[in-house]
Amino acid sequence: MAQPLPQLFGVIPTGLPCITLPTSSPTPASFLFTLPTTKPFSHICIFLLPGITLPPNTAAAVYLKVPSSADFKFLGGVGPGKESAVFKISGLGVGVGGNGANGEVDMDAPEGVVEGGEVTLGISLESAEAVAAQIAALHPGGNATAPGSSSALVVAGRGAGAAGGGTIDTVTLAQRIIKNAFNFLASFSGNLDGGVEVVPLKAFEEWWKKFEGRVRSDPGFLERDGD
């Protein structure tokens, strides 16, 4: 009896139902999805299903083959640090192809780009390093491993901004966020009758605004010791 195909990924062509069952699995690490073309679409969302964790040091490379081409075109990847992605596929070959400037979504593009023929999506489990390198090749001058980039794919053991080149654990990261908030909010504290110490909500909002701005401008600052 044939083994049931594994369900690891969700695939949503815009405007169509979610697909979780591959059409076929040529190898244990590769999955093909034949996408319906009865209704036109121009974007595809790919995501890891809830509870799914990829094997250590791997990521999922996403490829697309359109009726006008015999070859698969690399679109990007999902994996650690980037569990979902939306890819613009309009312009790849005849009516399909080429992502936007950041490799992803331009939702202003018109629907109705892909219609007719057979569109095949391929997802392959590969080394995280290899997938990150392919993403970097799509976006010269970008950073495929920076958590702050829209094409981010974090490679295990290479946390961006970490002083020693490694990632920090969740507890340490949480402690540094709390410390950052405490140091900022301490100067705004005051006492109510009875000696209860309080901090105005506006002060917290101001901290969050500054904190979010720094995360955007310097995504790895919390990972550096002593900062």
Describe the overall structure.
Residues 12-138 form the Hikeshi-like N-terminal domain. Residues 169-224 form the Hikeshi-like C-terminal domain. Pfam families: Hikeshi-like_C, Hikeshi-like_N. The protein has 227 residues and is α+β, with helices and mostly antiparallel strands. The protein folds into two domains: 9-138, no CATH class; 170-223, no CATH class. The protein has three helices and ten strands. A hairpin with a 7-residue loop joins strand 5 and strand 6 (73-78). Mean pLDDT is 73; it is low at 93-113, 143-150 and 155-166.
Radius of gyration: 22 Å
The order of strands across the largest sheet is 2-3-8-5-6
Q: Write down how many β-strands occur, each being a DSSP E stretch of 2 or more residues.
A: 10
| H-E order | EEEEEEEEHHEEH
- Share in β-strands: 15-25%
Low-confidence stretches: 93-113, 143-150, 155-166
Shape: elongated
Assembly state of the chains shown: single chain
Tell me the number of helical segments per DSSP (H or I, 4 or more residues long). Answer: 3
Distance between the termini: 58 Å
Family: Belongs to the OPI10 family.
Domain Hikeshi-like N-terminal: 12-138
Domain Hikeshi-like C-terminal: 169-224
GO molecular function: nuclear import signal receptor activity
